[in-house]
Design goal:
718 residues, alpha+beta, eight-stranded mixed beta sheet, four-stranded mixed beta sheet, 18 helices, 33 strands, 26% helix
Length: 718
């Protein structure tokens, strides 16, 4: 889990009562001040759309949707709505960010600048003082002003929760021009930054325990100890007849000195026919659970003391009743109706959605990929969970469209990304992940099914908009997808090449550089695409001097890595290595990994490399269900762009999107934005319409059979 989504930023709760009080005050104040604000806006602001070529823009983000897969399904007639959108406007690959991963790409979408200007280069980075892992996007601290009452610690202020992303969100700039926006689940928006609009945070919202997603697994099976799960934990259940008592582990109790984690007792009663189990959480109504059926969202109320309660929500899934009772519980999500931390702007927006639409997933990475990786749940359970979350997101989208007749709506769907990660092995019969898993079954076409589902959602939006010339619809993805067959441990390679040393010359090192000798180490790797130089003046134990020594070292490592061959296949593992100081010119490039590793399709940093371990071999097979990825050379995994208006370029880039949206609304983008206008605004422009040249897929590193895809879609290019 740490390898992909980071070590978590911690948990610090604030009383939900204040959320409701603030919501009431906000609503009352808005009603009372409306005549004044309306008059002020009319006189001082005027019509913010007077120079606009569009009065409403809707952006549907399909995280990870791949142009190669999309092109094939369009040709097969399986995405009729995207085909209509393409025929009306355009469809092109969309150049992604560098590195090509979601926190980087969506930060570029939000700000209109590259990572050296918004400061997000990976899910995780290292603390230069300790080399310990840090979540790159968010910092959560405890309240500094507290009142001590016996064993209790009562906070007198809100905890410090800070977004580490730099620059400004373009919807904040629109809000300053009185153009309203609703932004739903765009990654790297936690905690939300205030602006004139509504926002529900996405990726990097923690669970109630402060992690990026810790599932629970309860089982009556006990094989000489409790196995360690990556991304979760197991509790052994000990039946007494048909009854079992256990507990749910919640967040740390910050109100009690050395309070540890809060817990919530529960009772399981197995039915006599062993076809169901009754779950009775203390203080709540009982609920019957049935095998392979998800429960609804269940509220979990933890008592911190002094009348303070912390609420979360979770769903339960009986994996099996016999021969052992196996019960899975999702990570405990922040309850949107009683949010323990700010997950929306204003805070009442999350409450409003829950009151109107019912409880919903709030965790940044809500689809529990690691429960499937560890085979705690099977593919059916994962797919059901992912599609339920997709349906929740769709209901939010409809609510936003209903309320925005003028302005911006942006909703990001993660399902395309999560399902592609976990089911990519079905596209490659020889994938190492297939060795211990079935290769047939009802979900072998899961990725295709998700694409078709999203096509249906887009079709409904198109029908809603009709032929309104003042509305623009864009469907985008932050990156595409490719195979992930082999992991590469750059730390092991660095050790073999003499750039990284271990204490006492031991052979192996655990997570987070456990045994690294920093006094002799020149370079190390952490995260999914980055390699750091142990630089004097930046790292606490830095030994590489700035200037010519640093420049010579990065050139030397770059040259060697670009010649790195996989001994098992004889193929080159890395397409390109970029030196950050040469690739970027923004103010935060010094915080970037010094070398960005652009892997060939099929390769990626190994799981152990991502967590700073040193293993015996450089190359290993990836046998996890997580079989597809995009943390490779960005030219291999472009995203997609569909638009209801023609383009004015054959080569759109993700960084162009915020620039273009501001121009559509008649607003001048700030000079620091790095994109350009890509949509046709007038008849005088020569539009680029329809399909893209499929020859551009030739180097895209799509699924096996990409060459056949090229032939299959070639006739569509006309």
């Amino acid at each position: 889990m740490f390898a992909y989504i980071g070590p978590g930023a911690g948990f610090a709760f604030a009383g939900s009562l204040m959320v409701l009080v603030a919501a009431f005050a906000l609503a009352l104040g808005t009603i009372l001040l409306w005549p004044i604000t309306f008059a002020w806006k009319t006189i001082k602001v005027g019509n913010p759309f007077k120079n606009a070529s569009a009065r409403r823009v809707i952006v549907i983000g399909c995280d990870g949707m791949d142009p190669g897969m999309t092109a094939r399904l369009i040709q097969q007639g399986k995405l009729p709505n995207l085909r209509k959108l393409m025929d009306k406007g355009a469809f092109r690959p969309l150049d992604t960010s560098n590195p090509s991963m979601s926190p980087v790409a969506w930060s570029t979408f939000a700000t209109g600048v590259d990572p050296s200007r918004h400061g997000i280069f990976d899910f995780i980075t290292r603390d230069p003082c300790t080399c310990a892992p840090m979540l790159s996007s968010t910092e959560i601290g405890q309240a500094k002003r507290v009142l001590n009452i016996g064993k209790y610690i009562v906070p007198l202020e809100k905890p410090k929760i800070r977004l580490l992303q730099k620059s400004q969100h373009f919807w904040k700039l629109l809000g300053e021009k009185h153009i309203f926006s609703i932004i739903q689940r765009v990654p790297i928006t936690f905690p939300p930054v205030p602006f004139r609009g509504l926002l529900l945070s996405g990726m990097c919202v923690p669970d109630l325990r402060g992690s990026q997603g810790t599932f629970s697994f309860f089982s009556t099976k006990n094989d000489d100890g409790v196995p360690a799960f990556t991304g979760g934990e197991q509790t052994i259940l000990r039946p007494k007849g048909n009854t079992i008592r256990s507990r749910i582990v919640g967040p740390d109790n910050g109100m009690v000195k050395d309070g540890g984690r809060m817990t919530l007792p529960f009772t399981l009663t197995i039915a006599d026919d062993k076809k169901s189990v009754r779950l009775q959480i203390d203080g709540a109504d009982p609920i019957d659970l049935f095998p392979q059926v998800y429960s609804p969202w269940i509220t979990l109320t933890f008592s911190a003391g002094l009348g303070v309660e912390v609420k979360g929500i979770a769903r339960f899934y009986v994996v099996a009743m016999e021969p052992h009772l196996n019960l899975y519980m999702t990570p405990i999500h922040i309850d949107p109706e009683n949010p323990a931390m700010p997950i929306s702007h204003p805070e009442v927006y999350a409450v409003y959605l829950a009151k109107k639409l019912g409880p919903y997933a709030t965790l940044g990475l809500a689809e529990d990929t690691w429960a499937l990786n560890e085979r705690v749940i099977d593919e059916k359970a994962f797919f059901l969970q992912a599609m339920d979350i997709c349906d929740e997101r769709e209901r939010m989208l409809w609510d936003a469209i209903e309320h925005v007749r003028e302005g911006l709506v942006t909703t990001v769907f993660d399902t395309t990304d999560r399902v592609s990660h976990m089911f990519y092995r079905y596209l490659d019969p020889t994938h190492p992940a297939n060795r211990d898993k079935p290769t047939e079954g009802e979900l072998r076409d899961a990725i295709e099914r998700v694409y078709i589902h999203m096509d249906g959602v887009i079709g409904k939006v198109m029908a809603k908009l009709g032929d309104d010339p003042q509305s623009v619809l864009m469907v985008i993805s932050d990156h595409g997808f490719t195979n992930f067959r082999r992991g590469v441990n750059l730390n092991t390679w660095l050790k073999q090449e003499g750039y990284l040393h271990l204490k006492d010359d031991v052979e192996l090192s655990g997570d987070w550089f456990e045994k690294v000798d920093w006094s002799r180490t020149k370079a190390f790797s952490l995260g999914l695409t980055g390699m750091f130089i142990n630089r004097k003046g930046r790292e606490r134990s830095g030994i590489v001097a700035e200037g010519e020594e640093y420049r010579a070292l990065v050139r030397e490592i770059k040259a060697k890595l670009e010649m790195l061959d996989d001994p098992e296949t004889g193929t080159r593992a890395i397409r390109r290595v970029e030196i950050a100081m040469a690739a970027f010119d923004g103010p935060y490039r010094v915080d970037a990994p010094d070398l960005l590793i652009g892997y060939e399709g099929g390769y990626r940093n190994s799981w152990e490399c991502a967590t700073g371990s040193v293993t015996r071999t450089v190359f290993t097979d990836n046998t996890k269900s997580w079989s597809g990825d995009h943390c490779v050379d960005p030219t291999i995994v472009p995203g997609i762009l569909f638009s209801s208006r023609p383009l004015v370029t054959e080569h759109p880039k993700l960084v162009d999107i915020p620039f273009t949206i501001m121009r559509l609304f008649g607003q001048a983008p700030p000079k620091y934005m790095q994109g350009g206008m890509i949509l046709a605004e007038g008849a005088q422009e020569a539009p680029v319409k329809g399909f893209f040249d499929p020859r551009r897929l030739e180097q895209s590193g799509c699924a096996p059979g990409a060459r056949a895809v090229l032939d299959e879609v070639a006739h569509v290019a006309s």
